[in-house]
Amino acid sequence: MTQTHGRKHAVITVAICFLIAVIEGMDIQAAGIAVKGVAAEFGLDKTYQGYFLSAGILGLLPGSLMGGRWADKYGRKAVLIASVAIFALFTLFTAWVNSLATLLLVRFLAGAGLGAAMPNLITLAAESVKPEHRARAVGMMYAGMPVGAAILSLVAASNFGENWKNIFYLGGLLPLLVIPVMVWLLPESREFLQARQNRTIVQGRFQDLFSNGLAARTLLLWVSYFFTLMVVYLMLSWLPSLFQELGFSRKQGSTAQFWFMVSATVGTVLLGYLTDRWHKALVIALMYGGILAGLLSLNGASGLEQMYWAAALTGAFVIGCQGVLYAFGGIVYPTAVRATGVGTAAAVGRIGATLGPTIAGMLLSQGYGAAGVITSAIPCIIVSALCMFLVVRQISQEQTQASGTCALPAAGKA
């Protein structure tokens, strides 16, 4: 395989995965944008609005868990195509339901399809490039998520976005159009194909995440994913409502949300690049410090211009942080269990992601307001940062001792 063919393989893989990530970003933002219209149609209070926002996120948990495992057993491409098809169909069904129970069910199933797609996107992007370029490849792929959310924010500010059902029609039809492109153009991971040829490798076993020196980093990644995704999805799901709680109009909230996502795109790519180039402890300090600064600035913003700047600062680091965590998952696990490791960590993170919007809804219903919701996220960020520092310390020690077959590849300094 020539260098040109290898580069073409990487470009096509990352580009298609980026496109699917755009669709994911649209879906994640869709629930937060549509929640007011859904509440009006089904008569939901703040608590039940939280249930609606959490239903799709809850579906991400089993989807991430099984999508990663099946990808290590049957291939990344096939599982990704099936996942996108499931997500597309149940997103369309969201606009057709006529009861609250059915609404929650289809959101859960759409989330399951989307959850199964994510570990495959991360793994395909990571395995399409050399080990020293994996973080930036994952960052470029995951930058599609805030791009999709920003696009939907613009749609929400238009007349088309006033009807909440239109949001889900758009979110369901777009992935159906992408599936033929995936079938024809998306290449399977070469690393997976090579690993499958080695008959001694048993792929897709959860217990392998706790052997060969992986147990400590697996547990630390789980805790960090849990609390980080709790904050990420709290912000994504409730951001439009939080801006309105702070006294801004729907249009102003949509504009702030747009800048949140535009900045998130830049932050995701930049942090992914720095993860490959900088000492990884410095990247962790930068991204979690940036999240804390963003949350504090949101809490203290008093004018519209300040709110726009605060939203941009928060978006750059909150979404960028999630991209870096996914990149770490793609780096620290070997090929045979990479998708299983990423998918399982993401599934644990989805538990936190499910709790985040529900807790926010309860805080708002009890009168704590937007400031209380934002403040509640700060301890989660501190715990996540400490866990990631410990992961980096463990990897550095393993590299120094030059022991173990699952040590971090030489992809920048640990």
TrEMBL record:
Gene Ontology CC, one term: plasma membrane
Entry keywords, A to Z: Membrane, Transmembrane, Transmembrane helix
Residues spanning the membrane: 49-66, 78-98, 104-126, 138-161, 167-186, 214-236, 256-274, 281-301, 307-333, 345-364, 370-392
Family matches, as PROSITE patterns: MFS, SUGAR_TRANSPORT_1, SUGAR_TRANSPORT_2
Domain of life: Bacteria
One Pfam family from the record: MFS_1
GO molecular function: carboxylic acid transmembrane transporter activity
Keyword Transmembrane helix annotated: yes
Domain Major facilitator superfamily (MFS) profile per the UniProt entry, residue ranges: 13-396
Identification of the protein by name: 3-(3-hydroxy-phenyl)propionate transporter MhpT
